[in-house]
Specification:
Helix content is 59%, strand content 0%. By secondary structure, it is mainly α. The protein folds into two domains: 10-103, Alpha-helical ferredoxin (Fumarate Reductase Iron-sulfur Protein, Chain B, domain 2, Orthogonal Bundle); 111-186, no CATH class.
Length: 187
């Protein structure tokens, strides 16, 4: 049986160091038990399971991580972080990778997820709470998939799962929080 040898150069170390610097999580504590992947509700859709993604970070395989769909499929349920016997906050690591990708100007494998996140935050900023119809309208404009999910949307509207008109409540407070976060990020 031949063994594949992975060569780790100096650059390899800087990637896991960057994860520590930006997210404050040291992935070297992971001993690959696999508990995070077995508990993840969306792992079956991922190209790299959370366990594999952490391993790729340990090895400094930045391109493999950046080209993965994993962090864009993550539902941020925190199950992985809760299950980890080594207290590695995997959910935070996935968020950190997304931040690093933006800094490195890398495009996501699932661009519509990024568009959704941006529309969601924009909506929250204006209305103080989620105005679903407005958010979906903005999302459709950016993705140009106008008819996708139309049937389900009509059904939800009929059952009054969301309202036609927005309710403005606390938008100023949310904007204040976001401004504070931006300041902290810059600092
Ligand atoms: S936070 Fe993301 S990666 Fe972790 S278990 Fe939930 S969906 Fe999976
Ligand atoms: S649960 Fe923790 S120690 Fe186990 S594979 Fe996942 S990150 Fe590594």
């Amino acid at each position: 049986m031949t063994e594949e040898i992975v060569h780790i150069d100096e650059k390899s170390f800087t990637f896991s160091d960057a994860v520590v610097a930006v997210g404050g999580i040291d992935t070297s504590y992971c001993y690959q038990c696999g508990k995070c992947a077995t508990g993840c509700p969306v792992a079956y859709e991922m190209d790299l399971t959370p366990t594999q993604l952490i391993h790729a970070i340990q090895l400094g395989l930045k391109d493999l991580v950046y080209n993965s769909k994993t962090m864009w499929l993550c539902a941020a349920c925190q199950t992985c972080s809760t299950r980890c016997p080594q207290d590695v906050d995997i959910a935070e690591v996935l968020d950190t990778v997304k931040i690093l990708m933006q800094r490195d100007k890398k495009k996501p494998q699932l661009p519509n997820v990024l568009k959704f996140n941006k529309r969601f935050m924009g909506n929250l900023k204006w209305f103080g709470r989620l105005y679903e119809l407005g958010m979906i309208a903005m999302l459709k404009l950016s993705t140009r998939k106008f008819t996708q999910d139309m049937g389900m949307g009509m059904k939800m509207l009929k059952k009054r799962k969301f309202s036609i008109w927005p309710r403005f409540k606390g938008g100023w407070a949310v904007r204040k929080i976001l401004r504070r976060v931006k300041k902290q990020e810059k600092a």
